[in-house]
């Protein structure tokens, strides 16, 4: 018989081709090779699917946009805090996904707007108590 891989003539009772080492007269190992080929053929498609999934990070993008809004509306009592909380949560969840660029940016902006919100609360608190002090 002839080797299925390199075409060299081999004796009938050898399990492996002496020239190229491929398994001969062994349907199981040929089947395994076939399965391996199937896996290798399927693998690039799996990578492409994963990349397509990774290409969109809706929650991360939402977190980024909401965090930006919370920074813009951080002066508004109530609204700024609700937007901040939403932006913070969305960014945190989004950072667990890919691509997390926008989610990380949203997280950083959330931290900045948190500082702004706290400063505004302190400022208005101080202003309010100053008004109260003057009223007395
Ligand atoms: Zn061979």
What does this entry show, briefly?
The chain is built from four helices and no strands.
Task: Note the main attributes of this structure.
136 residues, mainly alpha, 2 domains, 4 helices, rod-shaped, binds zinc ion
Plain-language structure description:
The chain has 136 residues and is mostly helical. It folds into two domains: 1-55, no CATH class; 58-135. It is 70% helix and 0% strand. The chain contains four helices and no strands. Helix 2 packs antiparallel against helix 3, helix 2 packs parallel to helix 4 and helix 3 (79-94) packs antiparallel against helix 4 (101-135). The protein is rod-shaped. It starts with 26 loop residues before the first helix and ends with a helix. The model has no long low-confidence stretch (mean pLDDT 80). Bound molecules: zinc ion (ZN).
């Amino acid at each position: 018989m002839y080797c299925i891989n390199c075409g060299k003539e081999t004796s009938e009772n050898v399990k492996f081709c002496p020239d190229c080492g491929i398994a001969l007269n062994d349907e199981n190992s040929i089947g395994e090779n076939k399965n391996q080929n199937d896996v290798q053929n399927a693998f690039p498609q799996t990578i492409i699917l994963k990349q397509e999934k990774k290409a969109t990070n809706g929650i991360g993008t939402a977190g980024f946009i909401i965090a930006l809004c919370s920074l813009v509306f951080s002066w508004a009592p109530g609204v700024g805090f609700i937007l901040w909380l939403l932006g913070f949560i969305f960014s945190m969840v989004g950072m667990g996904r890919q691509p997390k660029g926008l989610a990380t940016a949203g997280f950083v902006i959330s931290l900045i707007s948190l500082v702004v919100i706290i400063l505004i609360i302190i400022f208005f608190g101080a202003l309010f108590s100053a008004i109260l002090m003057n009223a007395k």
